[in-house]
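Predict both folds.
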Amino acid sequence: MNLLVYTPVAVFAIFLLLFAMEKWFPLRATRTGLFARLLVNGILSGLVFLVAMLVVRPSSLSALDWSSAQQFGLLHLLQLPVWAQFVFAFLLLDLSFYYWHVLNHRIPVLWRFHNVHHIDPALDVSTGFRFHFGEVFLSTLFRVTQVILIGPALGMFLLYELVFQAGTLFHHSNLRLPIRLERWLNKFIVTPRMHGIHHSQVRPETNSNYGVVFPWWDRLHRTLGLNIPQSK
């Protein structure tokens, strides 16, 4: 249960670190006022946190309890060693989020909510919290279905949640990494340059790079788009 308590604290600490680093080492030139954006993103984020804490998290934890009590879900059927369960659960949770992200782009009613995230006039770590509370509310059904079908243990789920939130903040940040380092990292995780392309106003580029933690799902489904200058 420690992860349940400390995850919000760790995520906020990561946010502050990335917020400072992207000001020292910016990847893209900022063309909008920072204070006005932070105000808007802060208000939107506050509503998101409220819905997440009151609806999404309790529903997900209840689904986890039910899955554990009923021994329901893929992981319960496979009877893998604990280490393999962790790996398999982590991969399946991330893959299913890839599909959810794709649906948010392809289903018009979901896109109307998700577009609030995309129309941020700039892209930095605060964009990682900028979502419409309606999108987060609608994601409850997905989250409940996700954990019931996969059947991860509580610790597995909370560990992925922490990595998921940290990865979201990292790849939305305006942090300039040495290009060689970023190309190496991008073999294993989604990076700021990769996800920056996803926030392009060019539709084919927007409909690429859906991954959250791992870039492998974009490679597998041929939705990966790279080598597009951030200035474009």
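Second protein follows, with its predicted structure tokens after the sequence.
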Amino acid sequence: MEIYILQGIWVTLQYTLVAFLGGSIIGTTLAFLKYNHKAVWLINAYISFMRGTPLLVQLTLVYFVLPSLLGVSISVFVAGAIAFSVNSSAYIAEIIRAGLNNVDRGQFEASQALGISKFHMWKDIIFPQALRTIMPALINEAITLVKETALISTLGEQDIMRRAQLVSAEQYTYLQPLLTAAASYYLLTFLLEQMSKFYDYHRKPL
């Protein structure tokens, strides 16, 4: 029984990794656009909606409504990847924006004075400094994603939570399967927490 539930860890990790990667790409793009005052109101509306509505509602909209609008069918994995990514992107965008705001304005002025192009200024000077300060917050977002992926069980995906539910229904007991699921999630989040502490401990001051 425990082995069957633990096999769902790989499914949970797949959703977490895809969602974090997708959310980081979208969120970084939104943060840079917002920081440079491009379509700020539209980006703010997107972030507000994603942060202000339940993830379960977003997941349900993507899986049941989006296919009917596009006229195509999508798999549970694709629906989960889209929903988790766009939801996470709103939080990551705000994390990165806060990191950019913490970079000393003198860095921008010095880059301009030295004739450094905007691309290299952002890539080599500004963003690396922001990334150092926001890394713990990004790891916390990854921890949140690990737990939120349990919602994919509502669509029948064979993740940790769904496997625990199936075992519970088959054996007419909830304690041991759910404790196994809880321990699995805790193990994943604990490892991420240790990564955050390790990074904080070895991070050199700016």
